[in-house]
Amino acid sequence: MGRDRQADVVVIGSGHNGLVAACYLAKAGLDVTVLEANDWIGGCTSTSALIPEAPEHMIGPCAQDFCLIRLSSIVKDLDLRRYGYAEIEVDPAYVIPGPDGSSLAFWRDPVRTAQEIRRFSKKDARAYLEFLELQEVGMQAGIPYVLGDPTRPSAETLKAGVRSAVRHPIQLANLTRMIAGSAADAIDARFESSLLRAGLLGLAAVGAPVTHKGSGINALFPSIVRHAGVSRPIGGAQILPDALKACLLAHGGTVRTGAEVVELTTAKGRTMGVRLHTGEEVPATAVISAMDPAKTLRDFVPAGMLPDRIAQRVSRIPSKNGGTAYLTVHMAFSGQLDYSRLEAGRDDALNLRNTALLTGSFEEMCDAVDASTAGRLPDTMPVAIVLPTGPDPSQAPQGQDTVYLWAGWAPRDPPEGWDALAPRAGQALVDQAARHVDGIGELEIGRFVEPWTVLRDRTRVPDGNPYYVDLLTSRNGPLRPALGLAGYTTPVPGLFLTGGGTHPGPSVSGLPGQIAARKVLATMRELRGRAPRTAGPSAAAEPAADAVPA
Which domains does the chain have, with CATH numbers? Predict the structure, then answer.
């Protein structure tokens, strides 16, 4: 087959991390081509009309809240606002409704949250602030660590870690034990208020099954919100990949859709480019895969190129979330949903349409995980309710709404199969949401139910897991996606990894793409015998510990 001119870098996948890496490299003067198997860009940060009955209602089936990207320098470095990127901060981002009409809001300011908690438990109000103080011991070093290469932390990150260890040895030991255990245990041991326990567990549930060992790391989410805040993208998550594509094109890069990569091409033990499903070869000095790292190393790398010990580790990368799976339902409405019942129970005139409601009790969430890991649909489906059109009405016709319903405790392999189960499971989420929000049944135009099998087929994400690699303590930092593969490089010279399966993991952050781009730029001289024209995203982009926003 024919061969194009040789690019400096080929990026596999147009999710936001792949595009972030591509933009930094193109901005540094490299010739970059992004190859996307689908006929659309964005991966799990896409937005489109997925409900046939409602073609003007935009649906973001995966990403809703933007948090970690707000800790990074990406938007500023790449001047993404110039290319159309826009967001609106929401505070509070999360509210827990109680069965009696009361509610508890998680504000970015912990003190303000504690003031709300006092209405339910003075003891828990104190315990919540102590909980975040404990987490802060790790955050001062942890956030700079998140922003850099986990295998080569900066001097400032190391100094911050030493300071924490010297000043707070007992708290650091307690924090280490907490994140090694389960999120449910971490919360159960500290709090008595049913509403607070439910809210904290609901926040932790977005990472991993909350009763499983290693899920304790996800109990740190309130501290991440404290440092970064939460925003919603104007126009839906698609605004981010669209802005990144515009940035890439402005710096001379290329994006090709409908270009499915099936193999890495190599010669003399190093990367020479990729081969597409059509047989076309696309030569490149370096290749960055923003896809699932296990699929990349298992299916794209020619047999025998990985050392046996690495190949064995790749085969053991966990991606099935302990037997549970995510389930989402997206709905379009002919009018606006009514939150007034819940708002009447508050004394601050808070507009709950702008928040995410985390429903279900602590016990119901734990029971749901047990049921799903046993292959059963839970009797009660706790659900997160997000109204994208609350802060951003542009995602639907005037005066109309869309809603996003999420549950992290669907059975991965139900006996009847997901084709049969999806309608009943989707209705379970809708019924739960209707207990808290009025108008859901009366105003519905149509819905899109997405179990993991549909997500897999739509986005090409193996195992239907948008995180690629389970988000556990044992799969973070220098262990993500596996020991020996955490530095964005691979045993195949010229092949690099990025995406949610690499440090610091999933969610909309762009950090895997930013850090991978640094690694590529640092090695281009030895790969091709020359350096890029400009420095690109240097390690200087990582803030010192004392520069992290409070």
Answer: 7-48+61-84+236-317+467-547 (3.50.50.60), 109-229 (no CATH), 320-462 (3.90.660)
